[in-house]
Amino acid sequence: MIYNLNRSGPLQDKWLRLAMNTAIDRNKMLREPVAVDAAWIKNALARFGVCLEPIPWPMDQFYNDQFVENADIILGGEVLEENVDLGLIHLFKDQSSLIRRMLDPKRLARVDQFMDLFIQAGTAKMRKEAFKQLEMYLNSEQLLIYLYHSRKEITFNAALSGIRLNAFGWAEFSKLWIKPSSSAEKLIN
């Protein structure tokens, strides 16, 4: 969940954001069956007097300016590419990312400072430390709420061999081949 900190209102209060974060019991959220996460969050926060009205927004309108201008909170997910460093750079530096669109200029400048350190880091250890500092900042200011990591498993017909999926669930088609059936193998031999 990310807060729209370009809008005035109660969500500008870090302590309210912290209270909302605390009110969301991730373990309970994963245990209780719900059709949609937004409905579960709405019910969980309502018990603490925070009233939300989830409004589904179609993905084809994601880049529409009204998407961000009219939202107080956006619930979404992120899939990083296989090269995690590039994925993080895209998530925090790309102008179309929700983080860049939802944070106010002051907080965004601070995020950029951490990301500049991340980009300029000469080693993986230095990048990890820079990102750790960014996460500490995001958490200390309650700028976004991490909910959970999901894991998806996909099965394929046994005749497909050599299949490998990238982080977005796409097969590497250049390495995909169809295993011949045993009757076809007998004809060849």
What does the model show?
This protein is mainly α and about 190 residues long. It has helices at about 15-25, 25-30, 35-45, 65-70, 85-95, 100, 105-120, 125-140, 180-189, and strands at about 1-5, 75, 160, 175-180. The mean pLDDT is about 85. Helix 7 (about 105-120) runs antiparallel to helix 8 (about 125-140). The chain has a two-stranded antiparallel sheet. The longest helix is centred in the C-terminal third of the chain and has 18 residues, at about 125-140. The radius of gyration is 21 Å and the shape is globular. The chain is built from 9 helices and 4 strands.
Short description:
With 189 residues, the protein is mostly helical. It has helices at residues 14-23, 26-31, 37-46, 65-69, 84-93, 98-102, 105-120, 124-141, 182-188; strands at residues 2-3, 73-74, 160-161, 177-178.
Distance between the termini: 59 Å
Shape: globular
Tell me the total number of β-strands.
Answer: 4
What's the assembly state of these chains?
single chain
Unreliably modeled segments: none
Instruction: Identify the strand order in the major beta sheet.
Output: 1-2
Q: What kind of sheet is the major sheet?
A: 2 strands, antiparallel
Average pLDDT, rounded to a whole number, is 84
Based on CA atoms alone, the radius of gyration comes out at 21 Å
| Strand-pairing-aware structural class | mainly alpha
Features:
189 residues, mainly alpha, 4 strands, 9 helices, two-stranded antiparallel ribbon, single chain
